[in-house]
Structure formats: structure tokens, C-alpha cells
Amino acid sequence: MNLSFRNRIALHYMIATAVIMMVAFIVVYFVVQGTVYRNLDDDLSYEAEKHTREIEVVGDSIKIINKKEWKERQHREVQVNPVFIQILNKDGKFMDKSPNLKEDGLTFNAQQNYGGHFNGKLNSIAIRQVVVPIQKNGKIKGFILAAMSLESSKMVLLSLRNVLIVSYLFLLVGLYFMSRYLAGRGIIPVKVITETTKRITKNNLNERVVLPQNKDELYELSSSINQLLQRIENAIERERQFTSDASHELRTPLAALKGTLEVLIRKPRERLEYEDKIRFSLTEIDRMTGTLEQLLLLARLDTNSKTFDQSLVPLSTLIDEILSRHKKPISEKKLTIDFSKGAALDAVVPQYYSNLILDNIIGNAIKYSEENKTICITITETDSIIICKVQDEGIGIRTEDLNNLFNHFFRSDALNHRSIPGNGLGLSIAKKAADAINAEISVESEFGLGTSFTIRF
Known about the structure:
Beta-Lactamase, Heat Shock Protein 90, 5-stranded antiparallel sheet, 10 helices, 14 strands, 51% helix
């Protein structure tokens, strides 16, 4: 059935309510039916018991006392619901009956329990009957069979049934239109979400779905869509940032390469001059390669890729490996490495991400330290948190530059340190790697005296 979402909601609501209404109406009908039959049975039992006092048992014969008086009383009184009485002996044979039965008789059901009520027919008229035993000296001498008309009760039940059926049909029609109206109002937030998402394109990803006031399922849906849009916007922004960063950082070395090669082809030159320019070109190519590798690494870190090595390694071992890789610049600057492993000798950290963090921070400490200075590295552990601190006695960082330290291509006081190689991506990589493993990096620095980085794993 190809119905709209609104009509499907209305239909499902109507079906569910219709089933409940049907059960309720059936229960009402049978409760009323039970009440009607119970009242009729109480009256019938009372009449039967009352007439047992007007019966005389003589031997095997059972007769009605003062039958003429009974007949006259029936003529004098207008009986709305007359009672029919029939007397039977213990074998079920007819003994006597009330005058109002005339030529008719009641049907005796030998299998019916004494005192039990059952339906029957009297001259094609529905009646309700009861069988009451007639006892004398503790022995059953016969039976009194009492009956009352069931026609009025059946008319009441029939009228009730017709009213319930008609009411049910009218209620279903009204319920459909009401549920359709309520469903239409209920999906208004969905229409708002649809209209908003239709307006959102690549050029206006900053627009968001308005959150409903009630924190229900539609609120969760709107919030999830906004989070999805935020992730898409972040991904596109990362793409734009990568393109911008790559073009920005590669423009200078490419221009230098182009200028160098143009100079070389203008006129013949000496072999040494060619070799010098070629070495310069290779250096620029290596610098571009390193920058591209770092940019690609940043892009991979932005995607939270799970393909990186997740193995754990002792932090002290990792720092020893990093210091070993930087052995040459440490030796050239005659730096002193004060590495205090403390009690956290066996503390382990994620190898890949921790290596990115510490390699960049320790590499910067070595790069920006002056000759014959000391770099202090300490490892401590507090409340299951591993703390690594790298402190140098280098050139330091200006206070106003600390907030921009982890931005792409940012270098503090770069113009005064052109001789120090770098492109400003190392700390950005360290920060992304820290975010990937929920680590924290904090920095303290005093310009001209040194810098201290603290990493909490």
C-alpha cells in the first residue's frame, strides 16, 4: 500500500485504537448481558422458591394449593413479566401447571443441574427457565419448573449491540480524520528538517537544523543531522586546509627551483657551479617531500584512521630510541641530556602516536637549544596518569605566540631564526596525535630562557 508517512501514522493509530475500542465494546456488551441475565435469574429463582410454598405433596402426587385463587390473582394483576410454573414428579412426568400456561407446557431438561438457569422456547417465544427440586423429609418428590419471558431482555441486548456497532463505525471515521490531523501536526518538525536539509549545499554547510523544544526522538534526529553536517563541514574544511597548506608551502621551493633552473640554462657554466645549483635543487626537493609527507600525515590524523599501529611500548624505551635518532645534532651542539625515568620505568604508551608527539617535541628542544645547554626529560606517574616533561634552555617562545603554537605553519619569531630549519608543522602533528589517544599537551615558556612541554598520557 503506497501511503504517505502521514497517512501511515494515521492508519496505524486508527487500527490500534480500533482494536482497543472493539475489545472495550465487546467487554461492555458482555458485562451488560451478564447483568441482565443475572437480574433475570435472581427474579426467576425468587419466584420459583416462593411458589414452592404453594405446592402440596400427597404421596406420589404433587399439586398446586389454591389454584383458583392463583388464577383469579393473575386476572386481577397486570403482570409485566409473568412467571410460568410447571410441576413434575421425580421421574419428570407432568403433575400440574400454572393457569397462565394454558395449553402449553415447559420443556424439562433432565440433565440440567438443580438451580441452574437455561434458555428455552415457549410457543416460539424465548424464555429463561430454572429447575428447583421439591423435597420432603430429605427426599426429592418432584421438580418445580419456573420460566420467565426473555424477549424484553433480548430486545435490550439487541438495541445495545446495534448502538455499539453504529457508534463503533462513526467513531472509526472520526478517529481516522482526527489521527490524520494529529499526524500532520506531529510531522511538522520532520518537514522543517527536510526543508532545511534541502537548502544546505556545499557552499552553506554552516546552516543547521533548528532543534525542537521537546527533547524527544525528533530532537535526537535533528541533533544527529547537525552532528553529521558538522562532520561533513569539518571534512571539507580539512580538505580546503590541506589544499591551501600544500599550495602555500610548496609555492616557495617551486619558485626557487624554477629560478635556479632558468639561471642555469641562460649560458654555459662551470661544472662546480652546476653541481652547486643541483645540490640546492635537491635540497629544495627534499624539503618539499618532507612537507608533503607531514601534510599527508596531518590529513590522516584528521580522519582518525584506525590503520595506525596500536601496540604499546614502555615510554622510557621510546624516548631512548628518539634520543638515539637525534644523536648527531645532540653531539654537534654538545648538549647534555638529563633523562630521569623515576619510578615509572615500566609505564607503557601507544607506540605510533607517542612517537609522533615526543619526536617532534624533543626534536624542537634540540633544534632550538643553544650549544652546551641541558635538556631535562622526566617521567612520573600519578593516579594512573603518565606525565612526561621535556624542558630545554633554548631561545624560548614569546607569550603572545603561545596560543598559536599548534597552528599549521606557525613559527614563533620565524624571521629572526631563518637559519633553523622547519616549516611549522611539527607541533600541529604532535597535537593531532595527542588528540587521537586523548593525551594532553601543555607548554610553558619564557622568551630567551627556555621552554617546557608537559605531556599527560
